[in-house]
Structures are given as structure tokens and as C-alpha cells.
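Field notebook, page 366. I keep forgetting to write these up properly, so this time I am using the form the group agreed on. The chain and the ligand, V47, are recorded exactly as supplied. Prediction of the bound pose follows.
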Amino acid sequence: MLFEFEDKALIPLEEKVRAQERLSFEEGVTLWNSFDLLGVGYLANIARERIHGDKTFFIHNRHINPTNICINSCRFCAFGVKADDPTAYEKSLDEIFSDAEKYMNGKVSEFHIVGGLHPDWSFQYYLDLLRGLKERFPAVHIQAFTAVEVQYLAELAGLPLGETMVILKEAGLGSIPGGGAEIFAPRVRKKICGEKTTGEDWLNVHRTAHGAGLRTNATMLYGHIENAEDRTDHLIRLRELQDETGGFLTFIPLAFHPENTRLDHLPTTPGQLDLKALAVSRLMLDNFPHIKAFWIMITPKIAQLSQSFGTDDMDGTVVEEKIIHAAGAATDQIFHKNSIIEMIFEAGRQPVERDTLYEDEQEVCV
Ligand code: V47
């Protein structure tokens, strides 16, 4: 039986999706504005199953947030504070090494490290952090420092971006996470994080990373003051860079959490928008291998459902997360591997445990 679209504007898109034809800016806006969530999800699932069949990936990882002290004051962020704030913290290298060890239980395969732009830490601190972790856990991949942090580190080092990346890579950096992208549209970016790295600069850091042989992820912060055109523009800019370099692995839409932020008058994102963000991303980012449902942000239940709305990755165990929890995330800090596997099976998909670069993929048997 043929799928019946409630929104007739989606009908012409099915042929294009099946023929693997690229969707335009206008078609992207149509998808965001459509009331037909099932229709959008149906289209995204065609693309998802063509690329990945029934597989859903996950990773045994651990997040580490070394400090929340930050020179920026982004309006959407509840994590970053100034040094005199009572909640300010900074972890010594020894604390980080011992935390990492504490939670190794078995085989964590990735450390995901993201933090504030600390006004006093030196470039050397970051090199010692990478080298110290690599020395103690040589088999664990280090995915660390958003493009915003990498740009800051290059400034601290007084070196060009490319050289900074080579040094970070030699010290143990394996890949770069997708944070800091927020929304590229200057009109919105200025209002939510005016002092932060521009969208152009964010893209340039990733371009340089790809040139230095580092794979990276990308994100988009949605559900605040942006509109459908801003989101579509963001996705198309990422798609263009991916055409140029091929260096992106995964895209992760990040649902805005307003609590404790300077945008706390805004509501939390509805589940409808969370699912749509994942589905539209799958459809517009036709050259991105993976679309990730970060369960910390959207709850494990929405992440589970989203496997029929375009996603093929559930992120991982995480263990400790401070950025989104500072902004009111009500999810747990840790998702045990067996629970992730169970949720993937329940969704009718095949769980596959992966490493960061999707080079080692192990299907999990019942
Ligand atoms: O850079 C900050 C965002 C990011 C809020 O690459 C917020 O695999 C929502 O980038 N509401 C950090 N979002 C998290 C991140 C990430 C997470 C999981 C996987 C990967 C990956 C990357 O969180 C920040 C910022 O963009 N953020 N505050 C907030 N109130």
C-alpha cells in the first residue's frame, strides 16, 4: 500500500528522495513548516534505510567537562560561568585522569572532552591533558574541543589553526566534536551568542581540521529564536562544506534547554520538533554518513522513536554530562550499554557497537 501524505506539498519530495536527488533550500523550508510529521518521517526513513538498513550504532563513551569557567557569556548557555561564581569549577589534570580511570569499567572506547574557554589555562595544559590520557589509556580515542575551543587554543598558542591542529593531533587528539555551531545565521547568532566565534570561523576550523586529517562532527542548536529559513541555511552550509572536504562523520541536532539561561522565558522544545529536526537533517544532509539522536537532550524515548525518523546513531553511555544538565535536562547522566541495546532492539533495529570513526563495528546478538 502506498503511503498517504497528509501534507500534499510533500508528495513531489518522495520521488526526489527515492531518486537520491538533492533537496533545495525551498524544499528544506517546506519540510520544516510541514504539519505532517509522519510524512516527513516517512521520507527520512527512506534515506536512513537506504544508507544503513536496520543498523543503529552506539558507542561506549565517557564525557569529560574539565571546567565551566568561560570568557564568553552566551545567552543560551547555563554551563559557562565566571571564576567568582559559586558554581565555578576547574579540574586538575590528576582529577581528570582519576575520573577517567574510575569509570573505565570494561572498555570505554572514547573520551568526549568539551569545556569552557578558561581565561588562565595555557595551551600546555591542553597538551598535557591529551598526552596524559593517551599515556594512561592508549586504546581510547580522544574526541575533544569544539571548533570554538580549537580557535581559542590557536590564539593561546599564537599559531595558525592548521599548525595548532597538527600539534594537538600529535599529542593525542583523534577527532573534533560538533559543538559550538549553534546557528550560523548572523542575525540570530548575534542575539544568542554575539561574542562567540562566527559561523564562518566555525566552518573554517572544521575545513582546516579535515585538511589536517581529523574527522569531525557537526551540530545545530534549534528551538530558540531561529526560524525554518535559518535552520535550512545552517544545514545547507554544512552540506556545502561536506561536498568540499568529506570530513564530517555525524550530525547532531541539539534541542535548546532554557532553564538557568538568559533565554529562560522560552519554552522547551516539543517532541514534534525534536523528531522533525532529526528527520529534516537526514533529508537535507544527503552527504553526511550519520545522524545522531543525543538521548541526553531529547530523552531516550524520543531517541528510540527517532530510529524510524531518520537517525541511525544513539550516541552512547556518556556517564557524566554537565552542559545540558546545567540547563535543566531531566535525563540521567548515564545510559548503561545493555539498556541502549534493549532500546534499539525494541525499535526493531539491529544494535551495532562502534568506535568513534565507525571503523570497528560489532553487531550485537540477542
Ligand atoms: O557546544 C549549550 C550546546 C554543545 C545548551 O559531536 C546547549 O558527537 C541545548 O556539542 N541547550 C555541547 N544545547 C554538546 C555537543 C555534543 C553533544 C553530544 C555529542 C556531540 C558530538 C556533541 O551543547 C555546546 C552547545 O552548542 N548547548 N547550552 C542549552 N542550554
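OBSERVATIONS:
- The chain has a mean pLDDT of 95.
- The domain at 48-354 is CATH 3.20.20.70 (TIM Barrel).
FOLLOW-UP: compare against the apo run.
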